[in-house]
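All the exercises in this workshop are built on plain-text protein records. The record below serves as our worked example for the rest of this section.
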Amino acid sequence: MRDYELVAIVSPELDEEGVSGVIERVTQSISSRGGEVEEIKKWARRKLAYPIREFMEADYILARFKLMPKPVKELEAEMSAAGDILRYLVIKLGD
């Protein structure tokens, strides 16, 4: 398994429960693909540098996890389809 980091920008229309639901969904999505979530943090709501879907602020989520390379593509497809995630970025850590 490889180490990855995910940063997701979540819609500001969600309340605290909604953001917690997104965190739980991301955690379950990684675990169901055989991965291990090492750390997941909710950052504060922050102002965006430019509008995304007409929003000027959003909540940020950071997740560090281990997963095989192929399921990462499936995870990215799931993130793209989620309407409450405005943007995301998955990067491979290390070599």
The mean pLDDT is 91. The CA atoms of residues 41 and 62 lie 5 Å apart. Residues 16-32 form the longest helix (17 residues). DSSP finds two helices and four strands in the chain.
